[in-house]
Amino acid sequence: MGSRPIARRIVGRLGVGVAAGALAVAAFAPAAIAADPSTGWQAGAGVSSRTQAIQGNAFLPQALTVNVGDTITWHLNSGEFHTVTFLSGAAAPPVIIGGPNGPEFNPAVAAPSGGPTYDGSGFTNSGLLFTGQQFTLGFSKAGTYPFLCLIHAGMAGTINVQDAGTAYPRTQAQYDTAARATGARLLGVGRMVSARALAAARSSGRGQAAVGTGASVGAIGSVAVMRFLPGRLVIHAGQSVTWTNRDPETPHTITFGEEPGGGPLGAFAPSGVDGPGHATLSGPDASANSGFVGAGLPFGTTFTATFASPGTYRYICALHDDLGMTGTVVVLP
Predict the structure, then answer these.
(1) What H or E segment, with its residue span, contains residue 117?
(2) Rounded to whole angstroms, how far apart are CA atoms 196 and 222?
(3) C-alpha 104 chain-centroid distance
(4) What average pLDDT does the structure give for the chain?
(5) Buried b (16+ CB within 10 A) or exposed e, 65-96
(6) Bridge partner residues of 133 (DSSP)
(7) DSSP assignment of 169-220, as one string?
(8) How distant, in Å, are the alpha carbons of 55, 138, 220 from that of 214?
(9) DSSP code of residue 122
(10) Which helix (H) or strand (E) holds 74?
(11) Using alpha carbons only, what angle is made at residue 151 by residues 183 and 129, rounded to the nearest 5 degrees?
(12) Stretch 90-114: mean pLDDT, rounded?
């Protein structure tokens, strides 16, 4: 159940190669710097807590100034996947498209596009990047170029490209310092919304839990908490548990028993249910899947399971179990 990391599940599904308020970046002195980034500029995409419970969806730093002929390498620093994408004024492609066997990831999003350099025109995309991967892009023409992550709304940045030989306004060390500070603040927001979701679930009663939570962080991006809150519940046979997704963007599943096949989107639709948003589990070995639960999704933001017999019922989020998103319901006689 959830044995394959999500990266391999996505690759296998696609069949393509995949190589509260705004948090301001720390201010810098405006003095020009005659630096020579001979190894290229370094930047980050995403940030994670040590346990992977909290994912910060932001580019760190969000804005860089480089010269014509320079390169930037973005390093994926989170458990959540991202893209680094330059649209050049075009509309963003849809992330999910219809396939012969149901919804699937759009290859235009998942696969790399464009060449090794960017001049402000065309569609240039890293493809899906996973933990430890990186994407390097050179810049061949002066200009100001917005970029974004196609997966996470609000995760965007800007590259300002100066003429070759122009003094740089900031050093790599200054960018790194700003990135660390902003990353720490993002994780702080994640801890705050996690605590609030746990408190709300506990105050609502024994049979209530959050299936993830998250928040927009102004113009910087967002945070997502990849946990069931609380992760362990104790009830009696015949009672029910209701999970609520409190994240405004990230979908999750509540999946018991055998995980649906078909890659990461195989769990999109409910299975093993006995009505909209509800399943009855006869025993700990029973299988049921909520389908994707979240804002704007056809299956709503809640899912309820009724437990018919005593035992220990283990479940996962089929999308994020590789990040530790698992839970247990202990059902007493």
Answers:
(1) strand 117-118
(2) 16
(3) 17
(4) 89
(5) bbbbebbbebbbbbbbbbbbbbbeeeeebeee
(6) none
(7) SS-HHHHHHHHHHHHHHHHHHHHHHHHHHHHHHHHH-TTEEEEEEEEEETTT
(8) 9, 34, 14
(9) S
(10) strand 71-76
(11) 70
(12) 91
Cα angle value 91/103/212 (rounded, 5°):
85
Mode of pairing for the β-strands spanning 221-229 and 54-60? antiparallel
CA 242 → CA 195, 210, 277, distances in Å? 18, 8, 9
Tokens of 195: 């605590």
The two tokens of residue 185 are: 């603040």
Q: The tokens of 160 are what? A: 């300002």
pLDDT digits (tens, 9 = 90+) for 214-225: 999 999 999 999
110 membership: H or E segment, kind and range:
helix 107-110
Residues 77-93 pLDDT 10s: 999 999 999 999 999 99
Give the integer Cα–Cα distance in Å for 261 and 267.
7
Q: What's the one-letter identity of residue 140?
A: S
Q: Are 305 and 254 in contact (CB under 8 A)?
A: yes
What is the identity of the amino acid at 136?
A: T
310: Cα within 13 Å, side-chain hemisphere? 3
Q: Distance between CA atoms of 292 and 56, rounded to whole angstroms?
A: 21
